[in-house]
Structures are given as structure tokens and as C-alpha cells.
Amino acid sequence: MAELATLDDPRMREVNLRHGDDHGVHLGKLRAVAKRLKTQHDLARRLWATGDTAARLLAILICRPKAFERAELDVMVRAARSPKVHGWLVNYVVKKNPHAEELRVAWFADPDPVVASAGWELTTERVAKKPGGLDLAGLLDVIEARMKDAPDRLQWAMNHCLAQIGIEHAGHRARAIDIGERLEVLKDYPTAPGCTSPYAPIWISEMVRRQHDR
């Protein structure tokens, strides 16, 4: 914790706060600390327990994702209010955990929109890698009905799922693009030069074009 405190940069903290992340440690430096520490699951648990955002990010990098129990991950996701901590926890830990599918189902319709967004992120993973058993048309129905008015982080996760369905599943592509065009979610999102817009119709079209160009 003392080392993390020495790495805290007030300017970096100011930038991160704009995105809802209350820490000032450059992620490259944080990863360097994690590389030095290597995997230390007990230390990861203790770092997580501090509640400090930088400590929790470090904990995610040095933990053993498969060592967490389902109930433990549920508590952790509900406690991960920082967008970066939430994103890393879902992508670096939950997706690699044997309870990922059970948690996906449990979180998908959770009344807490941040927790529900984790369920949607895990669903998007399945859309891309293991779509068997998923009701893709049903997912599009839910997106069409609820995405427009969903809270920001849940809306972002639902939009990602919409785009992934359109990218990976040609039979649903036209409907996915149509939903995106009608709802106009993230249509005006500022996109840096060279990056793909998160607006689903553009995102889908660009990724399909790249697949065809391979």
C-alpha cells in the first residue's frame, strides 16, 4: 500500500476521476508491480479487502481467477463500483472462473444495473465464443425494448452485445443493424481517429468488412 501511494500521480488521478475511477496510478506502473509480485492469491485477497481502487486493480492482476468461489465473486462484483475495477474483474477473473456461466445467468436480470452489466458482458462473451443454447433473437428483443433507457454502464454492455450479435451471426445482422439505427444509442459518441465507433451499425459494418478482408 505504501508503494502504491508513492506511485499516485495527482494529474493521473484527475484524468481517471473523469471516468469514475478514483486512483492516480499509471496502469503501466501498476502492471510492472504485478509482474514483480507474480501470482500471490492470499495477498490479492488482502489487497482487495482494503477497498482501495489501485490496490484492487493490483489484486486482480496477481490473483488466481479459478480459486474464487461463486459467492465470493458475487460479493466482489457488487463491491466493484469503479468502472476500471469492474471491467478488469469481469474480464480478467470472472471469465476465467469455473462459475462464470452460473454467474452470467444470475447477474443477467439483476436489479442493480452495474451487476446486470456484468451479466451482459458475460453473455457477449458467449455470443462470440459459445453461442450454442443462447436465444439470440430473444436477446435482440430485450435490447430493442430496454437499451435506449438503460443506465450508462448497462446500456454500454447491452450495446456491445448487440454489436457482437451483428458481427458474429449473419442471420441476425440485418435486425441488429436496424435496432441500432432506430435506437441511435452512442451514435454521437466521440471517437478518436483510427478507432471504431461504438455506434452499433458502424461497429458491425466495420468489423464484418475486416473479416472479409482477411
Describe the structure in your own words:
The protein has helices at 2-7, 10-17, 27-37, 41-49, 53-62, 70-79, 83-93, 100-108, 113-129, 136-146, 152-168, 170-183, 200-213. The protein is an all-alpha fold. The mean pLDDT is 95.
Summed up:
The chain has 214 residues and is mostly helical.
Write the layout of secondary structure elements.
Layout: H1 2-7, H2 10-17, H3 27-37, H4 41-49, H5 53-62, H6 70-79, H7 83-93, H8 100-108, H9 113-129, H10 136-146, H11 152-168, H12 170-183, H13 200-213
Helix pairs in contact: 3-5, 4-5, 5-7, 8-9, 9-11, 10-11, 10-12, 11-12, 11-13
Features:
214 residues; single chain; mainly alpha; 0% strand; 69% helix
Alpha-beta classification = mainly alpha
- Helix residue percentage: 55-70%
- In the predicted model, the low-confidence regions spanning at least 5 consecutive residues are none
Tell me the fraction of residues in β-strands, as a range: under 5%
